[in-house]
Specification:
- The complex is a heterodimer.
- Chain A has 21 helices and 45 strands.
- By secondary structure, chain A is α+β, with helices and mostly antiparallel strands.
- In chain A, the strands form 10 sheets. Chain A has a 6-stranded mixed sheet with strand order 39-42-43-44-40-45. In chain A, strands 1, 28, 29, 30 and 31 form a 5-stranded antiparallel sheet that branches. A 5-stranded mixed sheet of chain A has the order 2-3-4-5-9, covered by helices on one side.
- In chain A, strand 3 and strand 4 form a beta hairpin.
- The longest helix of chain A is centred in the middle third of the chain and has 51 residues.
- In chain B, strands 1-2 form a two-stranded antiparallel sheet. A two-stranded parallel sheet of chain B has the order 3-4.
- In chain B, strand 1 and strand 2 form a beta hairpin.
- Among the domains of chain B are: 180 residues, no CATH class; 204 residues, Tetratricopeptide repeat domain (Serine Threonine Protein Phosphatase 5, Tetratricopeptide repeat, Alpha Horseshoe), CATH 1.25.40.
- The longest helix of chain B is centred in the first third of the chain and has 31 residues.
- Chain B is mainly alpha-helical.
- Chain B is 64% helix and 4% strand.
- Chain B has 26 helices and 4 strands.
- Classes of the chains: A alpha+beta, B mainly alpha.
Chain lengths: 856, 616
């Protein structure tokens, strides 16, 4: 690890460039405060490595400072300074430690927290019981002191703005508005007094944003008065390049200028330059935006007069400097493209070796020209460096893109740097190479995962195209021929004394692509029409089944409850679709995708219909083995039937119920053609040979078992048990239904010269009107689809039963008339009761059913 | 309280105006409580146009009045003035008076004349009042002077008009509300004019001319603060005319009118100082300090109740300089110093300690940095130390001196060259120069004085050895200062070089003399008479006025048996008339009163003895 700089990203606070300098501060012990120049302040716990609180302010946050007792946090934003107790920030975390991993506490700053209603405060500083704010009014800087207990304004100082520099700054490279710096400087004679009891109180006051300077330098810079009163001194680093100071005691009249950098002041800090001395900072460091570095330190026994003097060492580093921080001996600064370290002891020691002033500055400049790169780019804000137990220096940085990074500097750096000259540079190079390697490997893995995602997306796109092509261009393509399709089997099952119709959907992937993780089979079930009792709510039910990997040729089977007995009305439409969620693939990035679309892609697969025929429970013919095996079933069935009959008879009486019926006639030629065709390619069970003998039987068989529209009626052993051309069954509501298929020869009545046409008549009989209607509808639909697949036959078209057609038309007209009549009478409400009207309508309906037309 | 009903949005059709774009949109912020837009577009028909409706014009002028009051309240005088003149110009054009005078007073005269006795006259007079307020606020007292008669007649007329119209106005439906009652405005303007003029004349030295105006003003109806100002200024005039007792009377009246008029207190203190009434001066200082320490609520209270606070109208430099009061800290310092210098040492010590405590406390309430600055802190410390020593609290004095020494010692130069100052350069300038340029000599002198005080303390405690050590330290420090005459090499300064009192050089020599004298006296106590004699003689060389050194030198000579010399020495010392300017020097530079004393009657007896023996 020697010489390498480990960068660890702790969190991301995505933000694009803001108008103000971002700010990173330690506070409340180990917490880190972040203000990115927007309305939020983030509180990040560096121990738990997570965001603990977000403070929402009414305007862009410019600065924040915590009180010395860590009980309050002062936040400056456009409309004023807000003061919030720390308990608001930690309350949620404390109340539910188990819940600590959940979302951070959110606090909205409202006017009740407003402490100082001064507008446009750019910087804040808390010194003892005095809160200082720095703001800009037109052409001057205003430094105002408030009492922190009741926010009473104590004093205010103004300083004219040096405008020229500011103008050049606004049009400068960064485009960012520099925030002025407010720093409190203490004399270390005050900060480290000999008596222990006073240390504690003073340590409390010396906190973040407070510097401690060696007493001599403090006196030299800020005068003996401030030293005598043990007063802290406020240091302002202004964007116009001025470094001003103001001692708090005795009351000063104005801000005095310490030095002018002639470029926006980016950083002011204090550093211990010489190893000697008991740990006080002996050097004040100021860094300008364009790279000017000024070191101010005391110098003993200069040229003439003797005594201590303050000396200024000025130099330049490669700009622009975005931010900086300083530890005991080194200055860290970021140019935006790299993070650099400057050894301040080197800079100042080279000065010590030489006497002449001219030489000095040039030597210092030379030392400033050789900073060490840490190979960390895009850092825009730095918190104060900390040293962990292992002696590693940790920096906390904020990158341009809002990443909170911990940068650990190598321990061995100092030792490695000791041998100067060539060896050092090789070591540096090696370490730099190491850094680059590490970063490269990180990038490699990132690229790898991105590639993975891209490949995945490619698959998704292929599948999407495949399915979209099916829906868009070739509408007629039957679902059986789609590369990815869904078929279903409806079957009755009995669970907990209840019959229910289950639908088993099978997703068949016959495409060359793999359906990978992220795909979900979504099935929506909705009835074609609602039963009258269900009211208006469209009872659509959605099921989704995520699956992991579906290789080409594999199937995926899911089962879902369709309806319980006596509940749902048929037919039911089942629409299957494949859904792909981008969130699963891209994670949170999916939310940031451009466009208003949701992050899900939904591709319709097929729409299936489960009709009455599917839902029929066929009664096994008596005498087969089924009766013995499922005695209990039948017994309960009988009880159910008995109960049902009792219930009904209580109303009207079963005996009164008439049998309704409807029939459909199909030409047997058509049937034999289509069914044989189907049988040959579908049925490999040997029954295909026997089928031609009895067209009616095979029709029934087809009706009850085949899968028009992809749904098969799954009846365990039922299809074998069709005893004859009569099928008895129960509809879902438990009514008995009889399906009869018989061959009828129809004579062409008009001419009579032709031979009779052989047809098959399928008759539906039931006591339930609904069952008859439903089954009739189902029959017609099936035959309709059959006709679509039937081979074209020129001959059959000639046999149009013209007479029959005419009669049918006349009948239809008469019926229409009848309907109109009843509607008119219904509308006027004359003479006819509602019961009568219903009867008449029923009659019309039945007549309509009894269509003698033949389907050829 | 102003409500927004005062400013309805007033809009007018100006289809036939020459300047149809003359629509003014003003945004007014009043104390953040509300803001409103005024859309005032003024119709002024062309000479041949439709005759104006007087009511409309009145509404317009009222809107202008209200807008201007708000502008003035926000110190936007030029905007307000522009608005005023434009409105009046239009009015004149409407009347057919095309000629507009460029001179403002002439302009207003014509305006008043042309309007005559119409209903609009009152409105124009209102506007004139505002013009007056602007002149006052921008200190154009000359203009007011030239126009004063008209203005006062305006006041008369307005007073009449206001009284007449007050009854029907309340009944009529279209009430034109004003943000500020014109009667109150006039009262305010009147007294403020008198005050401003008085202050101006006073600062020009024409006190006798200022007095009558101020005295008439004091009987006008006005806020207490302003009445107090008139009394105060009258007092200043009288003080200037060297009638201190009458001035004091005026100041007392000012205080009676407004107890918070600290300036009156301060001025009375100055008069007592001038009269040499030290006790009264100290009393006044004490009162002044306690008044200054009260929380200042006067300004804010006034500002809250008035839209146009008097402070807005009284902005002249001369008045503010007359009203200037030093800060509480510097008042406390003068109080402490006065007490110490006038035999109230224990009280003075308490004040010094209060002062130091205030300086050290974080909470510096009521401490304003304006006014005369405090002396540098080491100076204060040394003064306090000297006071403590006078109060026989030697240990405390030593602690204070220690603080000064430890703070400044690191900054002391190895060698200082004091250059001869050209004669014409005044003392203050030198001081300023010192403060800027590191203050190295000053620092050295402070540390020296601190050592000297410590020596005095040890002398007081009769710890002669320590006393000698500290006096020596002081002396060693002082010899680092070299004096450089123009064109000569730097050298150790001698007595004949001392020019003015109070310069660094004078202090240096005094310190040298005192430290040598102190060491000499201490050595005398330990019977090191030769060394003592050397020191005392050197001390007399460096600082001839030092009586202690002279007397003790005689004593040592006496003890050494050199009686004649001793007598000569004593007589010389007594004959030496002390310079009157000792008072101007710092307390700590004065000769200690706490050391071992010589009984003068005993000395006189010895002289007589010697005289008799000689004669015998």
């Amino acid at each position: 690890m020697e010489g390498r700089c480990a960068v660890e990203t702790w969190a991301e606070f995505g933000f694009s460039g803001s108008s103000c300098t971002p700010r990173l501060k330690f506070g409340f012990g180990t917490d880190v405060f972040l203000c990115t120049g927007h309305d939020q302040v983030y509180v990040f716990s560096s121990q738990e490595r997570k965001l603990t609180a977000v403070i929402e302010c009414p305007g862009p946050v410019t600065d924040l400072v915590e009180s010395h007792d860590k009980k309050f946090l002062y936040v400056a934003c456009r409309s004023g300074v807000y003061c919030v107790g720390s308990q608001f920030l930690s309350s949620s975390a404390q109340s539910s430690p188990a819940d600590a991993s959940s979302s951070p506490a959110e606090l909205k700053m409202s006017t009740e927290f407003l402490a100082v209603a001064e507008e446009g405060v750019l910087s804040l500083l808390l010194v003892g019981s005095v809160l200082l704010t720095l703001s800009q009014r037109d052409t001057s800087w205003i430094l105002t002191q408030y009492r922190s207990s009741n926010f009473e304004m104590l004093r205010s100082f103004s300083r004219p703005l040096v405008s020229a520099v500011v103008h050049s700054d606004t049009g400068g490279t960064t485009g960012m508005r520099r925030r002025p710096l407010l720093i409190c400087v203490h004399s270390s004679a005050v900060a480290a007094p000999p008596s222990p009891p006073s240390t504690s109180s003073l340590e409390a006051t010396v906190s973040v944003g407070h510097l401690c300077l060696e007493p001599v330098l403090f006196k030299l810079l800020f005068g003996i008065d401030a030293a005598l009163t043990k007063s802290p001194v406020i240091l302002c680093g202004l964007p116009d390049g001025c470094l001003c100071f103001l001692p708090l005691r005795p009351p000063a009249t104005r801000l005095k200028v310490l030095h002018s950098l002639e470029q926006p002041v980016v950083f002011v800090g204090a550093s211990r330059v010489m190893e000697a001395g008991p740990g006080h900072a002996q050097c004040l460091v100021a860094v300008g935006e364009q790279g000017r570095v000024v070191l101010i330190k005391s110098d003993k026994g200069g040229s003439e007069g003797g005594g201590n003097r303050a000396v200024l060492i000025e130099g330049c580093v490669q700009g622009p400097v975005m931010c900086g921080c300083v530890d005991t001996k080194r200055l860290y600064y970021s140019t935006g493209s790299d993070l650099l370290v400057l050894d301040l002891s080197e800079v100042s020691s080279e000065r010590d070796g030489n006497e002449g002033d001219v030489e000095t500055s040039s030597m210092a400049a030379a030392a400033l020209q050789s900073p060490t790169s840490l190979n960390v780019c895009r850092v825009v804000a730095l918190a104060e460096p900390t040293c962990n137990t292992a002696g590693e220096v940790q920096l906390l940085g904020l990158s341009v893109r809002g990443q909170l990074q911990r940068i650990i500097l190598p321990v061995g750096r100092e030792d490695a740097r000791l041998p100067k000259g060539g060896g050092r540079s090789v070591r540096d190079l090696l370490s730099a190479i190491g850094d680059v390697c590490e970063r490269a490997s990180v990038l490699k893995t990132a690229i790898k995962s991105q590639n993975q995602i891209l490949r995945h997306l490619n698959q998704v796109l292929n599948i999407s195209f495949l399915l979209m092509a099916g829906t868009n261009t070739k509408e007629h393509l039957p679902s059986q021929e789609k590369p990815i399709r869904c078929r279903a089997t409806a079957s009755w099952s009995r669970l907990l004394q209840r019959d229910s119709l289950n639908l088993t959907c099978v997703l068949d992937n016959s495409s060359p692509y793999v359906l990978e993780r992220g795909w979900t089979l979504s099935i929506a079930v909705f009835p074609l029409s609602c039963p009258p009792g269900a009211g208006t709510d469209s009872s659509s039910t959605n099921f989704s089944f995520p699956f992991h990997n579906l290789l080409p040729g594999e199937t995926f089977e899911v089962s879902l409850p369709l309806a319980a007995a006596g509940e749902t009305s048929f037919p039911v439409t089942v629409s299957c679709s494949l859904v792909f969620s981008l969130t699963g693939l891209l994670g949170e990035e999916a939310e940031n995708l451009p466009g208003p679309r949701s992050s899900c892609v939904s591709l319709p697969l097929s729409t299936l219909t489960v009709d009455w025929l599917h839902a029929l429970q066929v009664c096994a013919p008596i005498g087969t083995h089924r009766k013995a095996t499922s005695q209990s079933y039948n017994a309960t069935d009988a009880i159910q039937a008995c109960l049902r009959s009792r219930r009904i008879s209580s109303g009207r009486g079963e005996t009164e119920r008439e049998q309704h019926s409807a029939s459909v006639r199909v030409s047997s030629e058509l049937l034999s053609d289509t069914l044989m065709l189907k049988g040959s390619d579908l049925d490999a069970q040997g029954r295909s040979k026997s089928a031609p003998q009895n067209v009616g039987l095979s029709l029934l068989e087809w009706l009850l078992s085949d899968a028009p529209g992809g749904v098969t009626a799954g009846r365990q052993g039922d299809q074998i048990a069709l005893g004859g051309s009569v099928v008895r069954a129960h509809d879902p509501n438990g009514h008995a239904v009889k399906l009869t298929a018989k061959e009828v020869n129809v004579m062409e009545e008009s001419t009579g010269k032709e031979e009779p046409l052989s047809t098959v008549e399928v008759q539906v009989e039931s006591s339930s009107m609904a069952a008859v209607c439903g089954l009739h509808h189902a029959l017609l639909r099936r035959i309709q689809t059959m006709l679509q697949t039937a081979p074209e036959r020129a001959a059959s078209t000639k046999r149009i039963q013209s007479l029959e057609l005419r009669r049918a038309l006349q009948r239809a007209e008469r019926l229409l008339q009848q309907i109109r009549q009843s509607r008119i009478s219904g509308a006027f409400g004359v003479g006819v009761s509602t019961g009568q009207m219903t009867q008449s309508l029923l009659a019309v309906y039945q007549e309509l059913r009894e269509n003698p037309l033949l389907i050829i | 309280m102003i409500t927004s009903t005062y400013f309805g949005v007033v809009g007018f059709d100006c289809s036939h105006t020459r300047r149809s774009s003359g629509t003014h949109v003003m945004r007014l912020h009043l104390g953040g409580e509300f803001s409103c837009y005024l859309y005032a577009s003024f119709p002024f028909p062309s000479p041949a146009g439709i005759p104006p409706i007087a009511d409309h014009t009145r509404v317009e002028l009222t809107v202008v009045y209200n807008a201007c009051v708000c502008s003035i309240a926000r110190s936007q005088f030029s905007e307000a003035e522009l608005l005023l003149t434009q409105a009046t110009e239009r009015l004149l054009q409407m009347k057919g008076d095309g000629s507009v005078a460029s001179d403002p007073s002439e302009f207003w005269r014509t305006a008043l004349k042309s309007l005559g006795n119409t209903a609009l006259n009152a409105c124009v007079m209102n506007l004139l009042c505002l013009q007056w307020a602007i002149w006052l606020a921008t200190c154009q007292l000359k203009t007011i002077q030239g126009f004063q008669d008209e203005l006062f007649s305006v006041f008369e007329a307005l007073g009449v008009w206001g009284a007449e119209s007050s009854v029907p106005r309340s009944e009529s439906s279209d009430v034109l509300l004003l943000v500020m009652d014109q009667r109150r405005l006039i009262e305010l303007l009147k007294i403020c004019t008198f005050i401003a003029q008085g202050a101006e004349r006073l600062s020009e030295g024409q006190s006798s001319e200022a007095l009558p105006g101020l005295q008439t003003a004091s009987s006008l109806p006005a806020p207490r603060t302003l009445i107090a100002y008139t009394h105060l200024l009258s007092g200043s005039c009288l003080a200037h005319m060297s009638r201190p007792q009458m001035a004091l009377q005026c100041y007392r009246m000012a205080l009676e009118t407004d107890p918070r008029c600290v300036c009156a207190l301060y001025r009375s203190m100055l008069i007592y100082r001038q009269l040499g009434n030290t006790q009264a001066e100290i009393q006044a200082l004490r009162l002044l300090h306690s008044t200054l320490m009260l929380p200042s609520t006067t300004e804010s209270a006034l500002a809250a109740t008035h839209l146009l606070p008097p402070s807005l109208l009284l902005r002249s430099q001369s008045l503010s300089s007359l009203l200037l009061v030093p800060s509480a800290l510097s008042v406390l310092h003068s109080l402490a110093l006065k007490c110490v210098l006038h035999e109230r040492v224990s009280e003075g010590v308490e004040h010094y300690l209060d002062l130091l405590a205030t300086l050290h406390s974080e909470d510096q309430h009521g401490v304003h940095a304006e006014g005369s600055p405090l002396p540098k802190l080491p100076e204060l410390y040394l003064q306090a130390g000297a006071a403590l020593l006078m109060a026989r609290r030697a240990a405390d004095c030593m602690a204070l001196c220690d603080e000064v020494i430890t703070t400044a010692l690191e900054l002391l130069p190895e060698k200082v060259v004091l250059e001869e100052q050209p004669e014409e350069k005044c003392e203050a300038e030198t001081r300023a120069l010192c403060a800027e340029g590191g203050d190295r000599v000053g620092m050295l002198l402070w540390v020296g004085a601190a050592y000297l005080l410590q020596g005095h303390c040890h002398t007081h405690l009769r710890d002669w050895k320590q006393a000698v050590t500290h006096y020596t330290r002081c002396f060693n420090l002082l010899v680092k200062v070299h004096f450089k005459k123009r064109g000569c090499q730097p050298q150790i300064p001698s007595t004949d070089m001392v020019g003015m009192q109070g310069t660094d050089l004078c202090i240096l020599q005094r310190l040298k003399g005192l430290s040598l004298a102190g060491r000499g006296i201490s050595l005398t106590q330990t019977d090191q008479l030769r060394e003592a004699l050397r020191d005392l003689q050197l001390s007399m060389q460096a600082f001839p006025e030092c009586t202690g050194a002279g007397l003790w030198c005689g004593e040592v000579l006496w003890r050494l048996g050199r009686r004649r010399e001793a007598v000569a020495c004593w007589e010389k010392t007594w004959n030496f008339t002390p310079q009157s300017s000792v008072q101007s020097l710092s307390v700590y530079l004065q000769e200690p009163q706490s050391g071992p004393l010589l009984d003068s009657t005993e000395l006189r007896r010895r002289i007589q003895d010697v005289g008799s023996t000689v004669s015998v």
